[in-house]
């Protein structure tokens, strides 16, 4: 690749040829597909769910992992965001089964007469669950299976037609009863959340998604992260790599975007702290919407937990001692499931002192700006909590104490994210980032 071409990609899913890492997750996923078990790929926005699906969809990828195991199977991936205009379940299955319809049109019909008949019957009966089960059973009898991947599945939770007991119940039944259909979901929300959010549709029956085993995508492994940065060849030195580590926490989107912006700063021949400040500003401009999307996905309890951790951590970025919110941080044990989930997603880790800390420096920039825009006094802080639907999670005393701490922290932060970026860039330029890496558990 020409040195003039920036090798880092963050505004689209990567292709199978560009894909790296995820060996553990892929091994589990391919094994489950080979044995006909349905799976949910779970991860925060822009963590690589679609890229993983694209990799699995590539025949050469499957060949590398399992040889001819999947040669007779048909694969289809649907993006739920592209299904918003679907008006009936029959229309959904028309889209979902198009690769099968195309295959039947290509194959000699004398070799597949019963499968063609089963498809035609299902089509004539508007793809009801009974005829679909017969269709997938016939496909299995013919020696194949249908691997249906539904990406951005949680987008269906607001679909006017498909967000229904009939549709979810049908998927569950087909996934559990038919050996000829294997389902894989890609979702920002985990299986427990999907079950909770659809419980009102089926208050007395089994949860719709308890037949799916969850595989969670977190940050890149250190090995994959270093392989990614190696694409810069000798352009990035050790200090550059530390910079990308701190701002991204090895999160794929942030790692790619942070590396891309640092590459551009090198192109502009910026030196020392000016290089890191320019890259930080550009990264923040790209990442703000990502963090807003992530915040929107989180539960109210998760927002409270990560806000408390952030308020204890932001002052360290400014070289100050912790503000007095230790009581609130100690009470976070009430939110242990949310904290553990954030650790699984790679958003939190534990530093050398055993404290939970946020791994993504760029997220701390964003939250500082979010608070800076909204928190000026106790009343403003209360309004912000209410807007985030977190006001019921704080006692009046906690709200007052955290509001005062937030105001003090934001006063020290000056211009918000800009101040944090400048302070971090200065430390990078002076080579004083090692303590920060240690504090952040990186």
User: What is the total number of structural domains?
Assistant: 2
In one word, what is the shape? Answer: globular
Helix percentage range: 55-70%
Secondary-structure-based class equals: alpha/beta
Average per-residue pLDDT, rounded, comes to 87
Major beta sheet, strand line-up: 2-3-4-1-5
- The percentage of residues in β strands lies in 5-15%
How many beta-strand runs?
Answer: 7
Helix segment count?
A: 21
Rg over CA atoms, rounded to whole Å, is: 25 Å
Provide the succession of SSEs: HEHHEHHHHEHEHEHHHHHHHEEHHHHH
Distance between the termini: 30 Å
* Main beta sheet: 5 strands, parallel
Uncertain segments of ≥5 residues (pLDDT<50)?
A: none
Verbal overview:
The protein has helices at 23-34, 49-57, 59-66, 89-96, 98-106, 113-124, 129-141, 165-177, 191-197, 222-229, 238-248, 252-267, 272-297, 300-317, 326-330, 336-344, 361-374, 378-387, 396-413, 417-429, 434-439, and strands at 39-42, 74-79, 146-151, 181-187, 213-216, 348-350, 356-358. It is α/β, with parallel strands linked by helices. The protein has two domains: 23-216, Rossmann fold; 225-442, no CATH class. The chain has a five-stranded parallel sheet with strand order 2-3-4-1-5, sandwiched between helices. Strands 6-7 form a two-stranded antiparallel sheet. α13 crosses α17, α13 packs across α20 and α17 (361-374) packs antiparallel against α20 (417-429). The radius of gyration is 25 Å and the shape is globular. The two termini are 30 Å apart. The model has no long low-confidence stretch (mean pLDDT 87).
